[in-house]
Structure formats: C-alpha cells, structure tokens
Design goal:
The complex is a heterodimer of chains A (159) and B (615).
Chain A (H helix, E strand, L loop, with lengths): L2 E5 L9 H11 L10 E5 L4 E5 L8 H5 L5 E3 L6 E3 L9 H5 L6 E3 L4 E3 L9 H5 L5 E5 L5 H11 L1 H6 L1
Antiparallel strand pairs in A: 1-8, 2-3, 4-5, 6-7
Chain B lengths: L5 E6 L4 E6 L2 H7 L2 H12 L13 E5 L13 E6 L6 E6 L3 H7 L4 E5 L6 E6 L2 E6 L8 H11 L6 E4 L2 H4 L7 E3 L3 E3 L4 H7 L2 E7 L9 H17 L1 H10 L4 H7 L21 H5 L10 E5 L9 E4 L18 E2 L3 H9 L6 H14 L3 H16 L5 H4 L9 H13 L2 H6 L3 H7 L8 E2 L2 E2 L9 H9 L12 H4 L15 H16 L13 H11 L6 H22 L10 H5 L14 H12 L9 H7 L2
Parallel strand pairs in B: 1-6, 7-12
Antiparallel strand pairs in B: 1-2, 3-4, 3-6, 4-5, 7-8, 9-10, 9-12, 10-11, 13-14, 14-15, 16-17
Helix pairs in contact in B: 1-2, 2-22, 7-21, 11-12, 11-13, 12-15, 13-17, 18-20, 18-24, 20-22, 20-24
Classes of the chains: A alpha+beta (159), B alpha+beta (615).
C-alpha cells in the first residue's frame, strides 16, 4: 500500500521537532535550515502550518531535470534526487509549483523530501500527530469521519 | 559537541566584533547559559558597576542543549547586572532566537561598552557586524522585527530587540524575541537600551551536532515520553497554559490581590484559563485562539489570543485586532489580581503592549497595583497621575498606563521606575511589594510559606523561577509538602534552587521539571556533551552557580538585611482563605537556610563551601 504524508495544521504547535528530525536524518546534525519540511507560523492569525513535497505523480521537478537526477522510488512513490547525478542547475526549483525543491548551497545539490525511504522521521517526531503517514488513497479519511459524525442525524437525535 | 565552542565579543564603544574560543574549563564547571554567562560576567566586570554604565556588560547565552531535538531545547538567557535591582540578572527566553544563535555558531554573545548612536547586531554564520539602527530607534519590538526582516529581504532572520520602553529607561524593560517571547525580568532590556543596542538579528544555518547521536536520540525520545505521559506537561499545560493555576492558587488563598492587601481575588475566575477558553458574549469567539510551542518544545504551553474587536482598547486600531501572545499566569495575575482588574480583554491588551514595547508585565502590573494604593490612600492624586483616576479595579487606568509606560511618557514614566523607587519617591517605601527592588510574582507567601524563603533569597530579587516550591507545596511535585509549615522548607528551597540553576544552564525549559527530574535530564546532557554528566555532577554545578551569584551580589553591596520580605507579608495576617491568620515565617526558615547552604549566620558563603565547590 502506498502511503503519503498527511498534514493537519490545526494540530500543529509550531515546535519544529519535524524540522529537527528531518535535518538529522539527512544531515546528521540538528539544523532546521536544512530541513525538507518547513513549518510556517502565520503569527497574526495564530496558525502553524507544516508544508513539504506532495510527491506529484506527474512531477514537474522530475520532468524539468535535464540530467534525469530525479526518479520515482517505486516502493513509496517518492520523487528522489540522486546527489551523484544532480548538477545543481536548479531548474527543478523553478519548475516546482509548490516551492518544495530547494537548493542547498553547502552541497551544490538540490534537496527535497524523499519520505525517508518509507518511514518519514517528521511524522514520527511530531508530538501532536499534526503530521501522519497514512494510506495514500485515504488521506481524507479523518475529515470524512468527522463529517460523517456531524451529518448523522440519527446520532444527533439520540444524543 | 553540543557547545559551539565559540563566543562573539562585541565592543559597542569601538564598534568591533571578534570571535574567541569558549573557555571549556569554565564550560565543564558551569555548563552553559545562566551558569557560564554568570562566570564570564563575574570575571569581567566590577560588581559595584552602575548597571547602566558602559562598564556593565550584557551577555546573551545559549546552553549546550540549545538547538538540539531535546524537548524544549531552544532557550537562551540574558545575563547582566540588572537595571531594576542592581543584583545579578539572568532572564530566560524561549521562542526561536536561541536556536538561531546556536546555529550561527555561537554559545554566547558578550556586549561591552556603549555605541555612540543606535546600532543593531547582524549575524550570519560566525560573521557579525554592527549596523546603523537609526531607522528602528523609536520603533516597537513588533515594527523592529518586521523592519529588519524586510531590510535584509530575509523572513527567516530571528530577532531579539528592545521596544521604546528599553530606549526610554523603563527600569524593567525586557528583551523580546519572535514577537512575544521575552527575557522579561530585572531590566535586562534597560541595560540593552543603555548601550544604544536596538536589536540582535541572526541567521544561522550551521547545524548543531551532539556527542553520541544514537544514545541522544534514544534518551531524548524516552524523556519526551515522560513529558507526554505526565498530567501537567502532557495535558494541563498544553490545554490551559500556566493559567491553569489561576483558580487553583486563588482557592488555596495565595493569590496576591490589590497590592497584596488581600490574598484571594473575587474576579479570579474571569481572568482564568477557563475564562480564556469560554466563547465571549460579544463576538462568540474565545480569547484563546490556540496553544503554541517554542523551539523544540513538546509541551506547548504558549497562549495565542485576541482582544475582542469591539473592546475600547482596539477599536479602529487594526494592529491590535490580531492574534498575538496571550496571557500567561504571571501576566494575568500582575495585570489583573494585583490591580483588581478582571476585564480579560483589557488584560490581554495590556499584555500585547508589554510585548510590543518590551517591558515586564509582572513588575509593571505590580507597580500599577502599588500606585493604585498610593492613589486610594491619597498619597498621590490626579495631579501626579496626569488626570488618571488610578483606582483598584479600573481597566482604563491599567491600559492607559500600559501605553504610557511603554513609551515612557506622562505618569507612565513614573510607573516605569518600578514600585520600589516609586513608593520611595512618595515616602511610602513599605507599599512596594518587592525584594531587592524586584516585584513579587503571583504567589502570596503567607499562603505558601516556602515561597517566602524563595523570594527572600532569590539572587535576582523576588522571583518564582529560582525555586518553584509551589510545585511541591501545592501540586505535590516531586513530593507533597504542607504549604502552611516552615519546617523543612530551607532544604526544599535549596534543592529547588540548585536543580533550577542546572536547568537554566542547559538550554532546557524549567517547565519540564513538572515531569522531569535531573535523572531524566542528566542522560540528555551526557549524550550531547563530553564530560561525564551525572546527576551528582549536575547538582554540584547547580550549587556552584548559586554560590557564584550570591558572591556577586554580596560584592555588589547586598547583605543579610536584603534577604527579607515587606512588612505586609511578615506582619499583616492573611484575611481570608485556608491561610487566614497567617503571616510568612521567614525568621524560622532563613537561619536554617544559611546553615544548609554552608553559609555563615550572616549569609556569607564560608571559605570551606567555596573551596568545596571550586568557586
């Protein structure tokens, strides 16, 4: 079963444990600046929103890459950058409509989420379950369940 | 590892920025942050220095765990001689600035001298420069932070700055980072202002390594589980914030009210965590928007709040019609119970102003409470207050004075003196509810006896964060003690003081200690840093830090006579509640405290004690 990262900003406290875990997994140091997932704090409305690559099927980054350095991991569906092939041209960073592929000046390569090979560290590190790793076919399950409960007139009548 | 091993020394007089290696011998004795910065300050400055003189220094310091994935490991402290107190000052802040400093490659930044004109320090990965802050002087913390990010075209910069309060010399001005997290107490922002230093802006991308990664990931994960499973850190604090205490402390009869004349507040429920969660009558929305975490924190006690748009404080003022840092228990108490005001909107607004202009809501609210007593007893009139009807319970007086104090204008300039100087000025020093010049926080020590000893002996003046015996006396953590007895409190206070000194020197938040003991903390420090960090070694560090601070204060001119409480706490019995009829029994605790500390009967550390600790 293919899985995907599922983000519920309503549960996020903005602690950045996901960024710490991501940078540690990829860089062996704690360094949010090198994280593939970013948490945005919209201060004036009190919202914290984690954001990262959605692993597009028809990935713009993959199509734009002139050296075929970005390929699909068949097991996870992740679009994975090969550091051996990447030439740091940054065309993928322009192609990605969502901004989730970024250049890393200290390596001269681009970096993006690769789902940690199917066991994403960000989801494991999240203390509030704002980031989970769920069945890719049912990312709407929680929301459907909530609405199912809300629209169940029988339950409301008996409550 | 864990330490960056690098110090930035900024000489504001000469305009120079130099990197130097961290003194690792001291790091092994004082750990980091509070302890290590204090050691640097003690070695480099004269304890008798005027806090506002260029010869005073100000140190921003991270702990070894700052910037790691240990829960809450994003703290930094500002250490200096306090403008409010003239004692050692160490104010601790969360948010994200501490991590950024560490990621820029610095354990510590030492500020010396005074700039000729306003400047801000800009740091990018081990490179630092002083830049002209003319465009930001006179601006609030909020505008300065936005302005610096816009100027550098970099929204990822983290900023710690002072507001107008710090520029104008309000004695309890704060250093505020990330819009609403503050190194709040003792006037560390006043010292920053006296140096013509408006802000420190940092961008750090170097990363923080630890000694033993595998073990570090294991022990930090175990420790996070302890916090998640604990009722206070796992449920109470995330849901209600520190405000979970308002109704509890009121019920036990330890909520100082109207300048400590009473110890229960009839309006407590209106300004409590429960009230913040309740939909408002006017707009149907609760005061509380969400909880928010500081860097790396798996507790998430921070409050994000709004003021109702129809409230008189924010009508036609869109900059305040937003979500921003909400009331913590201390601020809610000082702005509320201490002044007798129970208008939650007014308190939230006043708290916004404290963040926006950078001043301590505890000292501010408590000073307004003292001024209200001066007013109600006829010592001052509308002539002195500039027309403000300064009555207990007046929300308008509170919010007007918040705005005036933030700008150092009108009677706000006098409120900005703090209660000690204000009450002395009007010939009523006994009305200042303070120790060593610093106002009490939100626990009346007639109802919680150990807190009296905590306040009297706190090295930075009255403070709950130096030994939070409330934890034991009220909440039963780690063991329940009777809040009404004095016996055993000397030992309890010493134990809390030493342990807290460790936490404050590590990069962690003291709120973890509702769930963690040093048994949980030691393995995290040990996995991150070389040095063989055991509980025993950490306790020795804690005791060493405490004695070093004490030694500094004695050299600064403090003595046994300053280890005391206002007469109101020692002589006027509590009028209501479970502690009715009680005063604080400080005289029964203090001699024993000196003894367990290994100090003379005059409160001076003996040579034997100093030698044992290597101070």
């Amino acid at each position: 079963m293919q899985k995907s990262l599922h983000i519920d900003p309503g549960k996020c406290t903005g602690c950045l444990q996901c960024e710490l875990a991501c940078s540690f997994e990829n860089e062996n140091v704690f360094n949010p600046a090198k994280s593939r997932i970013k948490v945005f704090r919209f201060h004036d409305i009190g919202r914290m929103v984690p954001y990262t690559c959605t692993q597009c099927d028809e990935a713009w980054c993959m199509k734009a890459c002139p050296v075929e350095a970005i390929t699909t991991d068949a097991a996870t569906g992740a679009k994975v950058v090969s550091d051996a092939l990447c030439v740091g041209c940054k065309v993928c960073t322009i192609a990605c409509p969502f901004g989730t592929v970024n250049y890393n000046a200290s390596t001269g390569k681009v970096m993006k989420c690769d789902l940690c090979g199917g066991d994403p560290e960000c989801a494991k590190a999240c203390p509030t379950q704002a980031i989970t790793y769920v069945d890719a076919n049912w990312t709407g399950l929680d929301r459907m369940r909530d609405w199912a409960a809300k629209t169940d007139s029988g339950a409301r009548a008996s409550a | 590892m864990a330490w960056a091993r690098n110090v930035l020394r900024v000489n504001l007089t000469k305009g120079t920025c130099k990197n130097e290696p961290l003194n690792m011998e001291w790091a092994h004795k004082y750990l980091g942050q509070r302890g290590l910065a204090t050691k640097y300050l003690v070695e480099e400055t004269d304890p008798k220095v005027d806090p506002l003189s260029p010869n005073n220094k100000m140190i921003m310091a991270t702990g070894p765990l700052t910037g790691t994935c240990a829960s809450t490991a994003g703290r930094y402290s500002v250490v200096t001689k306090g403008a409010l107190t003239g004692a050692i000052a160490c104010s601790n802040s969360g948010g994200f600035f501490g991590n950024e400093m560490k990621n820029a490659g610095y354990d510590m930044i030492i500020f010396e001298g005074k700039a000729k004109s306003p400047v801000y320090l800009y740091i990018e990965n081990e490179k630092a420069e002083l830049l002209d802050a003319g465009a930001f002087w006179g601006k609030s913390v909020w505008d300065t932070e936005e302005g610096i990010k816009a100027k550098h075209q970099d929204p990822l910069i983290r900023v710690a700055s002072i507001g107008v309060a710090g520029e104008k010399g309000v004695k309890y001005a704060a250093v505020v980072n990330d819009m609403d997290r503050a190194a709040g107490r003792s006037g560390v922002g006043t010292v920053m202002g006296s140096k013509n230093l408006k802000a420190v802006a940092i961008r750090g991308t170097l990363g923080v390594p630890v000694r033993d990664f595998k073990r570090f990931m294991k022990v930090t994960a175990d420790a996070k589980k302890v916090l998640a499973d604990n009722a206070v850190t796992g449920q109470g604090l995330p849901k209600f914030g520190t405000q979970v205490l308002m109704n509890v402390i009121n019920e036990v009869g330890a909520l100082p009210t109207r300048n400590h004349r009473d110890i229960q507040f009839e309006g407590a429920k209106n300004i409590s965590a429960e009230a913040m969660a309740e939909p408002r009558k006017g707009d149907g929305k609760p005061n509380l928007v969400t909880n928010a975490a500081c860097f790396g924190c798996t507790i998430g006690c921070g409050r994000v709040s709004t003021v109702e748009r129809s409230h008189y404080t924010v009508v036609d003022r869109p900059q305040y019609q937003v979500a921003s840092g909400g009331l913590e228990y201390e601020a809610a108490w000082a702005l509320g119970a201490a002044t007798g005001v129970d208008d939650l909107n007014a308190l939230t607004f006043a708290n916004f102003i404290c963040n926006e202009q950078g001043f301590d809501p505890i000292s501010f609210g408590a000073t307004v409470g003292a001024a209200m007593e001066l007013f109600e007893t006829g010592v001052i009139t509308t002539k002195e207050t500039g027309g403000i009807e300064l009555k207990f319970g007046s929300a308008k007086a509170l919010t007007d004075l918040a705005e005036l104090t933030g700008k150092g204008e009108g009677f706000g300039a006098e409120i900005g003196l703090g209660s000690k100087r204000l009450c002395e000025k009007y010939g009523k020093p006994e009305l200042s509810m303070s120790v060593k010049g610093q106002e009490f926080p939100a626990y009346d020590s007639r109802g919680i006896q150990g807190m009296g000893l905590t306040y009297a002996t706190s090295n930075r003046g009255a403070c709950h964060l130096r030994s939070y015996t409330v934890s034991s006396e009220i909440l039963g953590v780690p063991v329940k003690t009777d809040p009404h007895v004095t016996e055993g409190k000397a030992e309890l206070v010493k134990a809390f003081q030493d342990a807290t000194s460790v936490v404050d020197s590590s990069g962690l938040c003291v709120f973890t200690t509702f769930g963690w003991t040093l048994e949980d903390i030691a393995p995290q420090i040990d996995a991150a840093c070389e040095g063989g960090w055991t509980v025993e070694k950490l306790l020795e560090v804690g005791e060493r830090v405490w004695n070093l601070e004490r030694k500094y204060n004695l050299a600064a001119g403090f003595s046994k006579k300053d280890d005391t409480l206002p007469a109101r706490i020692l002589k006027d019995a509590a009028k209501t509640g479970p502690a009715k009829g009680m005063v604080n029994g400080l005289k029964d605790m203090l001699p024993k405290y000196y003894e367990v500390r290994g100090w003379t009967s005059e409160g001076v550390p003996t040579n034997q004690t100093l030698e044992r600790l290597g101070v």
